[in-house]
Amino acid sequence: MRVTQQMMTQRSTGHISQSYDQMMNLQDQLSTGKKITRASQDPVVAMNGMRYRSQVGEVEQFERNVGEAHNWLDTSDAALGEATQVMQRVRELVTQASNDTYEGEQRGNIAKEISELKEQLISSANSKIGDKYIFNGSNTTNPPIDTDATADGVTADSFTGHGDAVEMELMKGIKIDVSSTPGEVFSEQLFSELEQLQADLENLDTTGEDLQKYLGTLDEQMNSIVNERAELGARSNRIEMIESRLADQKVISNKIMSNNENADLEEVITNLTNQQTVHQAALASAGRIMQTTLLDFLR
Predict the structure, then answer these.
(1) Which pLDDT score is estimated for 154?
(2) Which residues fall within 8 angstroms of residue 237, CB to CB, at 6 or more apart?
(3) CA distance 231 to 267
(4) Contacts of 5 (CB under 8 A, 6+ apart)
(5) SS3 of 175, please?
(6) pLDDT beneath 50, residues of the chain
(7) Coil, strand or helix: which one is 128?
(8) What tens digit of pLDDT does each residue of 247-269 get?
């Protein structure tokens, strides 16, 4: 094959252009820290990157769900703790009032305090996170007890109707119920007994023995609250274990994504230095070839 000056010029120009492309790719890797900046550079890396990034995004969403679950359970536990204190105070008052040495006026004052404590229980039952009621199941937009319907006491008409359990997905395929059992703690029976207790305290014919009968039912109500708190605590422990697994998954997913996408900067710098040397050699070689023109012979 006859090699012409034009062929050598085109070949040299092609090599220089290719060298520019390689240096540009290496400089892109240095600037971005990534192996590729376009999917066409390595479709396999690009495809795996999308898959790994999706996994990391999924883990981060589950972490946000875990935070919301903790918030829900912690708020529920705080409200139930408050309800426990209220019930303990009611029990103390009943124990005092069952002493037959208490006069009618003293029992009347105890009845007033129990009325206030009942209002506090209603407030606990209507606890919210943001604008969501947490003790009404999935019916979070309505309070479990409609305070506008308690003029004659907390009756069946005061309850708005509980929804289903509130479940949150904390890992792929794993959902945890974060709600308290609707009606288990702040039941119609609880408020009915408190109102009957209040009425008996205001009744001068009520004896200490009559009041002592309430101690047993109060203990049952308190046990219901304690059992519900224990249930919430068990679920909270499980959520903490899930949280730990999510943290491990996030570290692993980020490491895999980094290995797939991130450039080895030491290797890139070395390759760029080598490529610059090759490029300078190509320019010098092309310069000598292109100087050999007809005019050079005529000088």
Answers:
(1) 83
(2) none
(3) 55
(4) 289, 292, 293
(5) strand
(6) none
(7) strand
(8) 999 999 999 999 998 999 999 99
